[in-house]
Write a structure and sequence with these properties.
Alpha-Beta Plaits; 2 helices; single chain; 5 strands; 91 residues; hydrolase; alpha+beta; Acylphosphatase-like_dom_sf; acylphosphatase; EC 3.6.1.7
Length: 91
């Protein structure tokens, strides 16, 4: 299992990024969470197989229609064995 922490910047708030990501994450079968940050970035943690995580990361680099992803910073995190994917409150 692989877990990553991701911060996405650009025009990623107010465009349905978090809720679309939840749909994508559930379809792919990863666990984790996503939330807006007060600095107008989106932050997420994703856990799954290498292939699953790579698929969600590829989507995150594009985002939903109406978004403009400027950059995505990805760092490895320790897997937790989490299940399910949720949208969290703003940090």
């Amino acid at each position: 299992m692989r877990r990553v922490h991701v911060t996405v910047s650009g025009d990623v708030q107010g465009v349905g990024y978090r809720y679309t990501m939840r749909l994508v994450a559930r379809e792919v079968g990863v666990a984790g969470w996503v939330r807006n940050r007060r600095d107008l970035t989106v932050e997420a943690e994703i856990e799954g197989t290498d292939e699953q995580v790579d698929e969600v990361l590829a989507w995150m680099a594009e985002g939903p229609p109406g978004s403009r992803v400027a950059a995505a910073t990805v760092t490895d995190a320790a897997p937790t064995g989490a299940r399910g994917f949720e949208v969290r409150n703003t940090a």
